[in-house]
Design brief:
homodimer, about 220 residues, seven-stranded mixed sheet, 8 helices, about 20% strand, globular, disordered N terminus, disordered C terminus, DNA-binding
Amino acid sequence: MPDRIPQSPSEKTVERLSLYRYLLYGILAEGERNIFSHALAAMAAVSSAQVRQDMMVLGYSGSPNQGYEVGKLIASITEFLDDGHGRNIALVGIGNLGRAILSNFSGQRSRLQIVAAFDVNWQIVNRLIHGCWCFPMEKLHGVMKEQDITLGIVTVPPAAAQVVADQLCEGGVRGILNFAPVRLRVPEDVYVSNLNITVALEKVAYFAHHGMVRVESPSREEAKV
Amino acid sequence: MPDRIPQSPSEKTVERLSLYRYLLYGILAEGERNIFSHALAAMAAVSSAQVRQDMMVLGYSGSPNQGYEVGKLIASITEFLDDGHGRNIALVGIGNLGRAILSNFSGQRSRLQIVAAFDVNWQIVNRLIHGCWCFPMEKLHGVMKEQDITLGIVTVPPAAAQVVADQLCEGGVRGILNFAPVRLRVPEDVYVSNLNITVALEKVAYFAHHGMVRVESPSREEAKV
DNA sequence: TTCTGTTTGTGAAATAACTAACAGCGTTAA
DNA sequence: TTAACGCTGTTAGTTATTTCACAAACAGAA
């Protein structure tokens, strides 16, 4: 008898879990030991029902009247997302955006780590940037193997993105976060997620000036009486 | 008799329209005058049905057997998204990420334009960065009024984000693209969209190593026979 | 012209995501 | 101990989004 139907979570669920964990670290830092679903919901700008539903994919259960233990909930999300071990990441393209990500990501509380950066420009490689060693592109394959890198971040100009993606795939990458406004063609088993800043901005512009949809704060959803 | 029910489009539809337009400019540059829904779909990594459905919110119709006229389709999307006129944007926080956005955005083919950047650091203001003039924070309100700025991009550290958002709102901003990992509290009529790079990366890490969901390329959906 | 092969536009069906609602439990207070 | 309250886990219901499927339209060939 199967113990449980696998039922892989949706992308949105994973995103929210990641966000919850981030928020929970903040809670923990403030010394709170417990939190209710509606409090977490308010911080994440979702409904409390959504939070409880998301919790169902984790093994962890809160207790009635006490809510969730922050520490255990973090541990639970971490076990779920990271599966116990961290992942090593290569960042390719040390331009403005690449540097931004390197600096924002150093000293992060996730088990993901950018362990190497790469660029074609010889003037900027062979040194540390924000604590991360920069290699010339030629070393990509070798370093990926040495460091057991399984994830890649692509922050190169659009024209170079596909070539870089090919090299990452050849190096054995399993997933790519792509900032170049290009759809990458990769083997079946490589997961790609695109982050297009221009699109994001145009969306904001549209809804800012056409109103309608309201995404932030279901707010006082459960205000009393 | 009402000509048409308004029926505001979903966020996802707007994002896709923005992406289509971006892709169509590329098509146009290659000299193609027409395109089919399935070709555009392949580039955007969605289904052809999705493309046609999205087209329904525009007034424009393609012609059977000829597809869509690229130029007219771009014009149609532009009319829909930009409503005829451009928008002026203020970027706050000239760190690594801010610079990245300034450089990626200069000379873009959208009608959105970053017309001013702001920072608290006196050493980096009062000069051009990637073609954009940088002001000290004190000038925010004045410049916003002068330049008719209605959109803001927040690329400051988390701790400063709420204060910046407050100032932007006071300056009359209608929408904010927020990169700080914080939920901003803003008045009802200000639209906020959050872009959390860490969350995006953790999502990639999860699906890269747990498989399941496949987002890229419905691919050869309509391969013959 | 007429036939053939394709493609669009669109409502209906299917799927996915979210919300509501409530039984059951733990905590607290008498 | 017992009762009352508030929160969680969970299922069912609702809404949003995507895909299907097919009529109508057009171009090209014969």
